[in-house]
Amino acid sequence: MKAIFYGLRNNHVYLVLITLVCGTVVLWAWEKTPFLTTVLPPQDHVMRLSPVIPDDKIEEKQVSVGGDISEQSEKEISPSTKEVSDVEQVSEQKNSSKQGEKKNLVAPSSSVRTDSSVRGEDNNNLTSHVEKQACSYAKGKWVTDDGRPLYSGFGCKQWLSSMWSCRLTQRQDFQYEKLRWQPKDCKMEDFTGSKFLSRMKDKTLAFVGDSLGRQQFQSVMCMITGGEQRTDVINVGKEYGLVKGRGAIRPDGWAYRFPNTNTTILYYWSASLCDLVPLDITNRSTDVAMHLDRPPAFLRHYLHKFDVLVLNTGHHWNRGKLKANRWVMYVGGVPNTDRKIADIPGARNLTVHSIIKWVNSQLPRYPGLKAFYRSISPRHFFNGDWDTGGTCDNTSANAAGMEVLQEESSDDLAARAVKGTSVKLLDITALSQLRDEGHISRYSIKATPGAQDCLHWCLPGVPDTWNEILFAQL
């Protein structure tokens, strides 16, 4: 009996050894032989056992991450089950739009991917999209371009005020017309009138702001038409109440429509972006309530008709302008009594934040509307101001350098006001700061003796670049 027992035990040992050898051969063949992969399941589908994590370790990790403990423990204890479920959910969503697409399974140690491998996007397209989104048009440099200007200051008489066309003055140097803005991290799309009108088909672009906004409006009209006469363009100012009132020098704005694409471009004069209401409409010399926290009535009435809105304000915020216009500050519908707000910077700060906040609150009602706040256009008065002998006689663009590398906007108020909103910043301050030679200077047609215009720009000129950046951001 003992001999038989030992014989059986030895046979059992041999049987175990043979089984192990055969198993090893099969596994080795599985990896090396393509034929067997059609018979046996792939390695990715082999069940893997996740390590069991003690409860105290789960709690410790949850505290460090800061997530919900039930959610965190679900991920840590059984990642394979959780992730396969998530991937199946993603796959089901994909299959609803694209049948027959395979599910993507991920390793237990990875989270569900949301990049191009899951969405089915091309990696190159994704990279291109990210780079385009990351482009900062405010960083870059001015370069010479013999293909400039985009229109003639002689020819664009239909849209361009003669006082801003330096070609009609005694100025002799026009190198400022040859400069083009080149962003640092990307290539800005070339502007053409046909592309702009195509992009703005059945849409309305509205500029609302001061005289610098008016310059930007006239600039884009010249850019679209190439400075050529256009008899087909329709004056639709009446649709927006933009008509010249009795005794007025000019209307409060202009609106023109390009019939081939049904594109409307308009400008409304609102130097302060406040709602201005005469206190006594029967008295022409009455004071005017300047509601710092209320948008202009024009915006409230016509915002629903706009597809692109560009706002600006800045240079009318001084005591001289307020006194000359008889503007009296109002907040909350009553005269302001807060000394901090009564200070000009405080009043402007309140207004800019209020108007951007209001526009942002309206965007959900008009999902097709894109709103921009244009940062302030810099002044270049040297050795004084406009009324104290200040000058800007420089004719070389190299005086202050040619490049902008800073990350933050030079208009801190504008940057803070749009932060956290869906209103975009059209940041033109720093790049325009380099162009002190581009102002009208002493060459204005009706210049006051001894005074220079170092605020407004010669056109063609710097405001054309503002519109090129706007076009790129559309």
Low-confidence stretches: 1-9, 32-132
Q: In percent terms, what proportion of residues is strand?
A: 5-15%
Number of helices: 16
Report how far apart the termini are: 95 Å
The total strand number stands at 16
Classify the secondary structure makeup into a structural class.
alpha/beta
* CA-based shape: globular
Mean pLDDT: 80
Spatially, the strands of the biggest sheet line up as 4-5-6-3-9-12-14
Major sheet size, sense and barrel closure: 7 strands, mixed
Overall tally of structural domains: 2
Give the % helix.
25-40%
Radius of gyration: 34 Å
What is the strand and helix layout of this fold?
Elements: H1 2-32, H2 34-37, H3 55-65, H4 69-77, H5 79-97, H6 116-119, H7 123-134, E1 140-144, E2 179-183, H8 193-199, E3 204-209, H9 211-225, E4 234-235, E5 253-258, E6 263-269, E7 275-278, E8 288-291, H10 297-302, E9 308-311, H11 319-325, E10 327-331, E11 334-335, H12 339-342, H13 344-362, E12 370-374, E13 403-404, H14 412-418, E14 424-426, H15 429-433, E15 439-441, E16 453-457, H16 462-473
Parallel strand pairs: 3-6, 3-9, 8-10, 9-12, 12-14
Antiparallel strand pairs: 1-2, 1-13, 4-5, 5-6, 7-8, 10-11, 15-16
